[in-house]
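Chain A, query sequence.
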Amino acid sequence: MAIAVAHCCFSVLSSTVKFRYSVSYHRRLATSTSTSQASLDALSPKATNDKKRALKSCSSTSPRKFNVKKDPVSQKKLPGRSKDEKSSLYADGISGRGDMGRPQSTGFKSFGTQRKDREEFQLDLREQQVEPGNLQDATFLNAVVKVYCTHTAPDYSLPWQKQRQFTSTGSAFMIGDGKLLTNAHCVEHDTQVKVKRRGDDTKYVAKVLARGVDCDIALLSVESKEFWRGAEPLRLGHLPGLQDAVTVVGYPLGGDTISVTKGVVSRIEVTSYAHGSSDLLGIQIDAAINPGNSGGPAFNEQGECIGVAFQVYRSEEAENIGYVIPTTVVSHFLSDYERNGKYTGFPCLGVLLQKLENPALRACLHVQSNEGVLVRRVEPTSDANNVLKEGDVIVSFDDVHVGSEGTVPFRSNERIAFRYLISQKFAGDVAELGIVRAGRFMKVQVVLNRRVHLVPYHIDGGQPSYLIIAGLVFTPLSEPLIEEECEDSIGLKLLAKARYSLARFKGEQIVILSQVLANEVNIGYEDMGNQQVGFLCPPYNLRMPIYSHVLKCKNSRF
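Chain A, predicted structure.
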């Protein structure tokens, strides 16, 4: 029944589609590493999950202490998981929901980095990299740099320590004012970032100023004046049209020098972002994007940057599907940083919506025209909870009419998902909604804010919080922990709560007993693990009455 309902619903729980992890998949980055080691949501949780698994980041990472899973393009080593889980790969930071335990052959990949230690690799002969040709001496190529990042990721299963250090490489480009742009997954969990210019043999230390996980963009700065000598920043162009020529530049696998691939714009629509588990505007191209390309620019024929390469779609049924973050999303990221001094993120409306294609349903709701979407559920932590009600029909957003399929006009003779309008706003902005309630039309105003996740996709600050008492290890449930532990070991009941429950208030989190460190004081509890014991509520009192007789610390704090 839940799946049937999900097929007719889509959610705007955030300005982008939200997908969460399925039972079997692995993180794939678009950066390359070396040996040192949807929301209007998709129409069903299963559909979202299937799509997300196909998405992979375009970076390549170095081998860690884990089992190896080879990819046809990058042969990237991945953290060890269960056997079932290894049958599916996904882009860095993907999260999908539904259809748990069913491996998929498709997968989006964020391709940004390549492994420096690979002794061999397989290249898809259908993806041919073209020689720079007449672009060889183009000055804008000199604005593209190679990124070297050293990562130290947290160990979510053992939250008091970190995983083994590893390195990766990706691409970035100059935007002026001493700053560079790259992908967020290229510098995730960074401990050191260095960049090197084309034709130079010196690496310069870079600093991460802002990291937009949901839009997969990071802003870097380099203090060295020598690095910027003679540099010319790139000009950001406008959104391209279909069939416009596009050139992708970066430092992918296959060599150490700059690489150029060519193609055309295939499609422009709201796209699932693998790393941020969000849905924002994306440009689909057929130019080859390989590990190491992540963070590199895509140019039009005038030499203007039209976006940032960040992921590809891999499937047995599809080929030559790469994705570029458009300059509209890039400009939103930069404007957000300039306005707030930090990146605050894309806002959401905070409602679950259903299409109104059925004439009988429209008649029941007294909607006269073929437009509008039905509010099925309102997120408790959103401002919409004070304005909208279940059963309302949203027919316009800032005077833009919303179609019965949840789409709005886009450019000439095109339509795009309703959530695109939300993504054009900033956190704290006010949107005017035209709604039909009990047959009466009215206009209401809603403040758009970032979505509050009951189970976070990324941990702020990088290191997860935890509490150890009497050998019992407690930690908040998070998507990285689910991925690391393997969904099979989490349990269906806890996974269902993580997938479909909404936060009732800001700061609420699910607290689990992740494991028990055997000791005479906890005899009888040694085999327990990954079980929910309570909720973490402001002011961060850990509520776990089930184990209070063992811990004698019912009001212990994190």
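The domain at 244-340 is CATH 2.40.10.10 (Thrombin, subunit H). Confidence is low (pLDDT under 50) at residues 1-49, 62-106, 115-133, 540-558.
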